[in-house]
Amino acid sequence: RAKADGRGAARFFEAEMDARVQARRKLERDLRAAFALGELELHYQPLLVASDPRITGFEALLRWRHSERGFISPAEFIPVAEEIGLIAPITEWVLAKACAEAANWPSGVRIAVNLSPAHFRKQNPAFAVAQALAESGLAPDRLEVEITESVLLSDSAANIAMLHQIRALGVRIVMDDFGTGYSSLSYLRSFPFDKIKIDRSFVTELGESPQCAAIVRAVTSLGASLGITTTAEGVETTEQWERLRAEGCQELQGFLFSRPVPPEQARLLLSTPFSAALRQRRA
Ligand code: C2E
Ligand code: MG
Ligand code: MG
Ligand code: MG
């Protein structure tokens, strides 16, 4: 009996694994097809001057509306793209699309694009960056590339060389999700970043956790002494906004100001007096 039960459990387990493998294969096939058919989209989320708040730029964020499953988060499909060798072509597309869009914005407005660590492992993203700039005619100092600490974790000498090549093009290099890695501070020594984005988890707990508040204060003051801009991501309340401004954080991003929006709406945000609308909302 026990033996029979064991076999049953094993069969059940195998069936479950099989279903998972099938679902994963399907996701891979669907992602390849969606990319090939031009079904991936880019949305744009504003970055604002903390004291103003005027729009200084937008972050380009990938969106995938699956025909059966609906919206699939990039947090789910980017890792798949990385594993099936699709991240470099997708990033080339994102860079080209985002730079072309930004070329239509007022000249002070920047565009930020996320680069994946897997891209650095496969090839040199500096080529894709150079090509996007050449094709769009966008001034290099209007492009920012965001990397996470993991780019500096593996193959760091090679990756740092590639980062220097990107920077030599005149592009700004941003450390994304700062504070979530193992030794965040040491990464600031390995490359002269232009900007640090404080991870959303610190911003979320700003009100409740004195530790978080102290860390945010330390990072902004460190940034100031290193000549690095600090941005806070995930700002959702006016209290967080007030606090971040008081701590000397220069730039903000979050649902309080705007969610990521399609390009037409991003253009609209640029042409409406955004700060006035916000002041009204706060009052
Ligand atoms: P990220 O680069 O840290 O992007 C910021 C994420 O925080 C975005 O999630 C954005 O929608 C979200 N966010 C911004 N403000 C708020 C807020 O106030 N509250 C909350 N709850 N969330 C906020 P999204 O668009 O789902 O992207 C998730 C991650 O997927 C990104 O994190 C990035 O790592 C990756 N990703 C997105 N697009 C691309 C891309 O084109 N290339 C690569 N390599 N990765 C991408
Ligand atoms: Mg980012
Ligand atoms: Mg981020
Ligand atoms: Mg993040």
TrEMBL record:
Coiled-coil intervals, chain numbering: none
Record domain EAL: where: 24-274
Top-level lineage group: Bacteria
Protein name: EAL domain-containing protein
Biological source species: Chelatococcus sambhunathii
